[in-house]
Amino acid sequence: MSNEIELLDRYEQINKVAQLYIKGTTKPTTIAKELGIKRAEALDLISEWREIARENDDIKEQAAEALQAGIQHYSMIVERFWETVEQADTNQDYKTKNAVLKNIADVEAKKIDMLQKAGLYDDAAIGDELAEMEEKQAILINILKEVTSDCEHCKYEVARRLSKVTGKTEPVTLAGEVES
């Protein structure tokens, strides 16, 4: 009887962790504080919940539906952003265009982050998605550089902000001749 009670208590703890995790509380330290348990125990409970989730078809189906809804949401946002880019381009509003292009890159990065945190996709799918994201990021950076090439202030501002996002110094091409 004692083992059954311990098992029920364990499943109750796993359920509490799962509820927090699904609601977006994914940090083990935060989960441990919320439940009044040690961080190591929270890590164990998260691991057990993930195993249960991977083996349960209903949970996998719900997770897939939630991920699909998230992907559709991000895609809708990106679509609207591209409409804004086109309007800004038509109005020759390069400052807005640059800001929106950066927002597109940020949303795409968040989408990838969401997929990685889900932990339900295999590494190959995440790797393919990540490679695609990196390619899109490079394209967006090139677009930003091209669009701002005629505006000295914009060029430096975009390079500065890109450096914050990419973590590396972005080169700026100076106009004019170099004196020797």
Q: Topology of this protein?
A:
Layout: H1 2-22, H2 28-35, H3 39-55, H4 57-90, H5 94-118, H6 123-148, H7 152-166
**Tally of distinct domains:** 2
Mean pLDDT: 81
Order of helices and strands: HHHHHHH
Give the % helix: over 70%
Query: Sheet with the most strands?
Result: none
Strand content: under 5%
* Model regions low in confidence, pLDDT < 50 over at least 5 residues: none
- What is the CA-based Rg, rounded? 23 Å
Quaternary form? single chain
Q: Helix/strand/pairing class, anyone?
A: mainly alpha
Number of helices: 7
Distance linking N and C termini: 89 Å
Shape: elongated
Total number of beta strands? 0
Structure characterization notes:
It is a single chain. The protein is mainly α and 180 residues long. The chain folds into 2 domains: 2-55, Arc Repressor Mutant, subunit A; 60-166. The chain is 81% helix and 0% strand. The chain has helices at 2-22, 28-35, 39-55, 57-90, 94-118, 123-148, 152-166. The longest helix has 34 residues, at 57-90. The protein is elongated. It starts with a helix and ends in a 14-residue tail after the last helix. The mean pLDDT is 81.
Keywords:
mainly alpha, 2 domains, Arc Repressor Mutant, subunit A, 180 residues, 7 helices, single chain, elongated
Brief rundown of the structure:
The protein has helices at residues 2-22, 28-35, 39-55, 57-90, 94-118, 123-148, 152-166. It has 180 residues and is mainly alpha-helical.
